[in-house]
């Protein structure tokens, strides 16, 4: 798990990001956890841009966009695959 922090409306949100291989083992699926609970999942497209799979925590769209941007900027090709 990797820790990221995003800020929205002057509030810092700490998230944990997990990475799980897809069936083809070339792509990764990212799980986003908040206080130990899975709140969202993302999958990259072929250009490594993350797209929302599920929003379990009913997070706001601006917050989801910030999370995706932070994960993309950290490791555009996956955390463990390099």
Topology:
Layout: E1 2-8, E2 11-21, E3 28-34, E4 37-44, E5 50-54, H1 61-74
Antiparallel strand pairs: 1-2, 2-3, 3-4, 4-5
Any overview of this molecule?
There is one protein chain. The protein has 82 residues and is an alpha+beta fold. It has one domain (2-74). The chain is built from 1 helix and 5 strands. It has a 5-stranded antiparallel β-sheet, with helices on one face. Strand 2 (11-21) and strand 3 form a beta hairpin. The two termini are 16 Å apart.
Mean pLDDT: 85
Order of helices and strands: EEEEEH
Q: Please summarize the sheet with the most strands.
A: 5 strands, antiparallel
Poorly predicted spans: none
**Approximately how much helix is present in the residues?**
10-25%
Task: Count all strands and give the number.
Answer: 5
Helix-and-strand structural type: alpha+beta
Which features does this protein show?
five-stranded antiparallel beta sheet; alpha+beta; 82 residues; 5 strands
Quick structural overview:
Helices cover 17% and strands 46% of the residues. With 82 residues, the chain is an alpha+beta fold.
């Amino acid at each position: 798990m990797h820790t990221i922090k995003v800020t929205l409306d002057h509030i810092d949100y700490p998230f944990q990001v997990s990475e799980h291989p897809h069936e083809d083992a070339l792509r990764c699926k990212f799980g986003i956890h908040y206080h130990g609970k899975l709140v969202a999942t993302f999958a990259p497209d072929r250009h490594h841009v993350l797209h929302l799979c599920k929003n379990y925590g009913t997070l706001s769209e601006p917050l989801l966009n910030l999370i995706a941007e932070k994960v993309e900027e950290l490791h555009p090709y996956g955390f463990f695959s390099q």
